[in-house]
Amino acid sequence: MTTVKTVCPYCGTGCNMYVHTGSAHIAKVTPDLEHPVSQGELCLKGYYGFNHVADRRRLTTPLRRQGNDFIPISWDSALDEVAGKFSAVRRDHGPDAFALFASARCTNEDNYVAQKFARAVMGTNNVDHCARLCHSSTVSGLAQAFGSGAMTNSIPEIGEVSDLIFIIGSNTAEQHPLIARHVIRAQQRGAKLVVADPRQTEMAEKADLWIRVPPGHNIPLVNGMLHVVIKEGLHDKEFIDAHSVGFDDVVHAVESFSPEAVERMSGIPAGQIVHAARMYAGARASVILFAMGITQFSHGVGNVASLANLAVVTGQIGRPGAGVCPLRGQGNVQGACDLGALPNVYPAYQSVTDPALRAHYESAWGVTLPAKVGLKITEVPAAIDRGEVRTLMIFGENPLMSDPDLGALRKEIQKLDFLVVMDLFMTETARFANIVLPAACWAEKDGTYTNTERRVQRGRAVVPAPGEARLDWAVFSALAARMGYAGMNYGGAQEIWDEVRRVVPKTFGGISYARLDKLPGLSWPCPSEDHPGTPILHKDGHFTMASGKAQLTPVLFDPNVLPDAKTKGFTHAITAHVVEHADTAYPFILTTGRRVYNYHTGTMTRKSPLLEQLAPEERIELNPADAKELGVADGDFIKLSTRRGKSIARAWVTERVAPKNVFSTFHYWEANCNELTNAQSLDPICGIPEYKVSAAKVEKSSAAEAKSWRDWIQGEYRVAVERATNAVLAGRVQK
User: Fold this and answer.
1) Nearest 10 degrees: CA dihedral of 456, 119, 382, 579?
2) Above 70 in pLDDT, residue 731?
3) Residue 221: CB partners within 8 Å, gap ≥ 6?
4) H-helix or E-strand spanning residue 157
5) Mean pLDDT of the chain
6) Residue 51 Rama label (left phi>0; alpha psi -120 to 50; beta)
7) In a 3-state reduction of DSSP, which class is residue 640?
8) Pairing between strand 2-7 and 574-576?
9) In the predicted model, what is the mean pLDDT of residues 160-187?
């Protein structure tokens, strides 16, 4: 066997593993015993989620749509057609008629080249990726507060240093299991754990204090904690005075959020709010861990800003074990953001509207660059409907499973003049494409990935790509050459990374492949080769704002009506409310998320026989009291509907969810919660949609109705996927 060390392709933890191959196929995966994050362990997906690499359904040749079918074509034909269509749309309709969706699953090098293609070749800033749908509120909220929208501390500090871990909106044990291990280690040495979550997750069961927060009510909880901290004098006045601005506004904003008022507003017991505030403020080193239970709201930035306020007011930031730590969901979502796959910034978060920064990139890339901020992913469907975006390229993303309100999105995507999808498989999105390009996967490419703690690590090719599948960056380079741009003629991933280091030296200059081959990663910023990296941001209260001080922002919340900041005496504040409430027509609240056995849209994990055996179908969580009222037993089919659509799956009758709450995931095309979620209510600052709160109706269903639903959803977009896949397989056998 051959053994190669690389990075796990799943969540943002960035575990390292050894991939063992024989006869050019992966035989098994074992953990890296010395890696500081994974420390000799992997989760189920890391151990058993590799079967997709050699799956016979992999795309191995470019495909062109022919009616309702796809036919294999050569790479030259595919690239000529794509380059011709892209050039034509740029000429006839302007650069902004093109948009690009980049990928949080692909390498830093892939994403750098992709955003460079959009800007330098197509001439548009219409480039974005799935961070818009998961952590864009983190990037905006923390950048507004601290100057940097990234995790402030390293993962090992949680287990080794933190005395109080505050997990809010994160199902850590299931979605970041190896980070959860560090939390357990901290508990074993005496640290306390506070968990705020609507569901009784595994981490909630392990907590010293679990607060069942109703979906959408994170802000009143955190504001209530701030109220207690300030009233009881638990705030760090010296730190506040020296390292922040805006404290008086925050005091004014949280004045009305007494524990008793929050209890009346949310049902959270006042005593729990007081207890949590004292535990958090009183610990020597408190760390906040949060994920999409904080970010995926129409007021996601407000959620994040309130947590930033809590950390600064208590002085729990800029020290070992004390900070604010967003947990990223996909393997390189941090890196895709870092490398500029966003519509408003170049690599290293440098604004596209800043003339000096734009001049820097124009000099580096040899072209004139657009000055206008591009479209967010969540703005593209409406732009398609208006005829403004006519051509779209998507690589390593499956928006027709992962984006909200899929019924509406399916209609919009079909209005495009030309769609190109580059992926591993014929996905639910690829079936609508005019051209489908076969991509190399994580196990077939060299490059770097950046985990949730900003640790840049080396990924290495382990097996050859199947058939004619190509590297993502190489496809963009080939298209650029056909379109007359010579600035992307790269010889390999290392050459691309060295360009990144030259272009943004203050962030990545010291992170060379040579160093990464010897070290378990380096955390940016790392400006020189003798720099050790930066595991802790904002050390000793030095924030990366222009003023050097943290910006505290008052966050106003009313569950029913959007507050008016001016009438409440604020010139600058974030306002928030709950967009949808249960009513007589839709008496439940649907909240959404993921499960441990699957990953994202199931494109990779559902190719694993073991993982598919462990979790073969969607189960909608339903409280026993509601099940009894509906006459539903565990395992019965139920129909879940909102104002946007419906889904039918088996019920999991469990007290994990509170009465009148239900929980569902987007792993299964057969019953995808994103048929139901809300694409219209967007955070006004970052544009993230409302995934976590939807008014819903639950009804008892039947096996016959479930089959009818499955047949309908298959006909809507899954039959074409299967037909195209079978045609590709048949053509491969014939060839």
Assistant:
1) 30
2) no
3) 168, 196, 211, 213, 262, 266, 268, 273, 276
4) helix 155-160
5) 95
6) alpha
7) strand
8) unpaired
9) 97
pLDDT grade, residue 723 (50/70/90)? confident
Q: Please state the rounded mean pLDDT for residues 265-277.
A: 98
pLDDT of 567 > 70? The answer is yes
- Measured in whole angstroms, the distance separating CA 60 from the mean position of its chain's CA atoms is 28
Identify the CATH assignment for 588-734 out of 2.40.40.20, 3.40.605.10, 1.10.220.10, 3.20.10.10: 2.40.40.20
- How does residue 1 score in pLDDT terms, banded at 50, 70 and 90? confident
What are the angstrom distances between the C-alpha of 571 and each of 35, 123, 249, 681? 48, 37, 9, 24
Contact yes or no for 222/307 (Cβ under 8 A): yes
Q: Taking residues 118-140, report their average pLDDT.
A: 96
Confidence of residue 395 (pLDDT cuts 50, 70, 90): very high
Alpha carbons 350 and 339: distance in angstroms, whole number? 10
Chain centre to alpha carbon of residue 542 = 28
DSSP state of 641: E
- At the second CATH level, the architecture of 136-328+550-575 is 3-Layer(aba) Sandwich (3.40)
Q: DSSP assignment of 89-154, as one string? A: HHHHH-GGGEEEE--TTS-HHHHHHHHHIIIIII----EE-THHHHTHHHHHHHHHHHS--S--S-
Dist. CA 698–CA 587, nearest whole Å: 8
Q: Tens of pLDDT along 518-563?
A: 999 999 999 999 999 999 999 989 999 989 999 999 999 999 999 9
Residue 184: exposure state from Cβ atoms within 10 A (0-12, 13-18, ≥19): middle
Check whether 463 has a pLDDT greater than 50.
yes
In 3-state terms, what secondary structure has residue 63? strand
Q: Where are the domains of the chain?
A: 2-54, 77-129+341-523, 136-328+550-575, 588-734
Helix H or strand E encompassing 480: helix 472-482
Report the C-alpha gap between 582 and 660 in whole angstroms: 9
Nearest alpha carbon to residue 521 among 350, 332, 345, 349: 332
CA–CA distance from 638 to each of 215, 509, 601 (Å)? Answer: 21, 55, 22
pLDDT at 199: 97
CATH number, span 77-129+341-523? 3.40.50.740
Give me the mean pLDDT over the 236-258 stretch.
Answer: 97
Percent of the chain's residues with pLDDT above 90: 93
Residue 735, pLDDT above cutoff 60: no
Rounded Cα gap, residues 666 and 657, in angstroms: 18
Q: Is the pLDDT of residue 680 over 70?
A: yes
Q: Quick one: DSSP state of residue 368?
A: -
Identify the architecture of domain 2-54 in CATH. Single Sheet (2.20)
* Rounded alpha-carbon distances, angstroms, from residue 467 to 71, 196, 725: 16, 48, 15
pLDDT value of position 396: 94
What is the CB neighbour count within 10 angstroms for residue 434? 18
Say how far apart CA 88 and CA 81 lie, in whole Å: 10
